[in-house]
């Protein structure tokens, strides 16, 4: 799963060092072509605190690696942007300092977004953006989104009779299949009595997990998904079928909106459908 399509951004702060305060200047690393979006916030901060803010653009997925080199040399940033899946290694290496954020400030964000940058009850970052999977449909092929995944399965069967596709999704990757597995009783790691992750308790082979995977397997065995979507290039195949108007709906993320719009697709966005057990599909969260 490539970072550019599977994670979202999160603003993570370093402890402001004494030299930064003495110079009355902060250095901020922002993602490429994203600094325009924080100009107003920077202006407000400078006016309120009288501290100059210097912004440097750098690919967010590379910031931790560069911090490993620049930090010890004393030329690293005071604030940087990283995806939440880099938090663990960054904390272990001592690259990030804890943030003091009270409950009132944290309440401005969803609990799941804050949890994405919290480790062992210590907060290391504040959410900048959050991404999840959604259902995207072509309004010209499917005027209104369906309610359940089973309805999409039946719709896909009819579409295949017309040599078209109904719903496409990368169900061969856990990033996408987890939306079915979790609500049906699967979990990755359990938790101990203190609420910490217990890596010895793995919940990928629960009865619910088996039931979920067995159900998803029908989309493949019934020919409702093309073989070309399997493997690393599967998302490209899905995007091609959707933009060529050969598929009515896909499960994808907000990173697909711009390409679909550029292709002239009259698309709509809807919540993920309900499962056979009545629960809605879920999604991993990228922050």
TrEMBL record:
It comes from the Bacteria. Keywords: Periplasm, Signal, Sugar transport, Transport. GO terms for cellular component: ATP-binding cassette (ABC) transporter complex, substrate-binding subunit-containing; cell envelope; periplasmic space. GO terms for molecular function: carbohydrate transmembrane transporter activity; maltose binding. It is found in: Periplasm. Residues 1-22 form the signal peptide. InterPro entries: Maltose/Cyclodextrin-bd, SBP. One of its GO terms (biological process) is maltose transport. Belongs to the bacterial solute-binding protein 1 family. Part of the ABC transporter complex MalEFGK involved in maltose/maltodextrin import. Binds maltose and higher maltodextrins. PANTHER family: MALTOSE-BINDING PERIPLASMIC PROTEIN, MALTOSE_MALTODEXTRIN-BINDING PERIPLASMIC PROTEIN. This is Maltodextrin-binding protein. The lineage of its organism: Bacteria, Pseudomonadati, Pseudomonadota, Gammaproteobacteria, Enterobacterales.
